[in-house]
Task: inverse folding
């Protein structure tokens, strides 16, 4: 197993390098210049062109694109992601602040997805063609078809603006510092409800459909019929024999869904003004802040590779027949 993990990690290095290389050249070849923000008409005071040239030289923007790429690659190899053009702060420090917020949203969304999606899929398969099954199927299709940004805006309008049950944005209230320890925890959880629900419920709708379809296939297998013939309770047949095999493709889906969750986090963080990596990326793209763009793309690529690797490793836990050890020669 350890050899397999090491091999996968080594093979993922060229993949991550290819992704960040393509992103680097596409970002730098796009129209516009990062120094354009100093020439915006709405600025009260125009910046001296000589100062702009000094800034271009400071950030290496006066160098050919291939020289900029090699310089950036060397710096990243040393753990230096550069300095933000707009914020004048080390990108590493900004990531330390933003990444935990994104991981918090993503992790809670996956938990919500698993709890609702797998549970509803099992219930729908066991109660096939019942009213409950039809309700779950129709509801899943409706939610799955909803754009996440539209659902987020509708929830804000109903539960935040009209009813006032949840905050519209940010991660904490204005009086956060005056609250007790428990009050602070509840305040953070209060701000998490809507963004986590939007991210998790859309995934749960798709998971429920996949879970139902796969479980119905497994329940028609011969070994399930044999288990029932041996007198096992239906709950034991489903939970012990059928569910474990039905979960194998679901594990694959969770591993492959990580890029989509990160992409969804970008939209949700922007709508809810959540100070995570996604919102930071959107702001960086608008301001052509190359160091932030490259750092966030690299982190997203690494997390995606690790998510797929984790899904492969989980196969062995779900299905004991799966082995990643090389067969021994006789």
Result:
């Amino acid at each position: 197993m350890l050899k397999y993990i090491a091999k996968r990690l080594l093979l993922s290095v060229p993949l991550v390098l290819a992704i960040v290389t393509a992103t680097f050249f596409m970002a730098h070849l796009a129209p516009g210049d990062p120094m354009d923000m100093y020439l915006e008409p709405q600025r009260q005071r125009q910046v001296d062109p000589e100062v702009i040239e000094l800034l271009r030289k400071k950030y290496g923007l006066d160098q050919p694109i291939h020289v900029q790429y090699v310089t950036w690659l060397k710096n990243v190899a040393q753990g230096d992601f550069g300095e933000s053009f707009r914020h004048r702060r080390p990108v590493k420090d900004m990531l330390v602040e933003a990444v935990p917020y994104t991981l918090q949203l993503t992790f809670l969304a996956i938990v919500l997805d698993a709890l609702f999606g797998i549970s509803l899929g099992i219930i729908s398969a066991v109660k096939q063609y019942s009213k409950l099954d039809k309700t779950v199927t129709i509801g899943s299709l409706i939610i799955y078809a909803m754009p996440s940004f539209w659902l987020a805006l509708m929830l804000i309008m109903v539960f935040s603006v009209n009813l006032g049950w949840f905050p519209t944005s940010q991660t904490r209230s204005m009086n956060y510092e005056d609250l007790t320890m428990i009050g602070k925890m509840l305040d953070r959880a209060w701000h998490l409800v809507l963004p986590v629900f939007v991210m998790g419920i859309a995934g749960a709708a798709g998971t429920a459909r996949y879970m139902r379809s796969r479980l119905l296939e497994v329940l028609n297998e011969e070994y399930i019929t044999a288990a029932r013939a041996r007198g096992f309770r239906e709950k034991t047949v489903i939970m012990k024999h059928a569910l474990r095999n039905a979960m194998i493709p679901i594990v694959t889906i969770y591993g492959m869904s990580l890029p989509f969750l990160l992409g969804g986090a970008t939209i949700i963080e922007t709508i809810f003004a959540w100070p995570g990596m996604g919102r930071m990326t959107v702001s960086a793209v608008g301001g052509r802040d190359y160091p932030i763009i490259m750092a966030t793309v690299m982190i997203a690529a690494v997390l995606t590779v690790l998510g797929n690797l984790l899904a492969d490793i989980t196969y062995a836990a779900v299905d004991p027949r799966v082995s990643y050890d090389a067969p021994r020669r006789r």
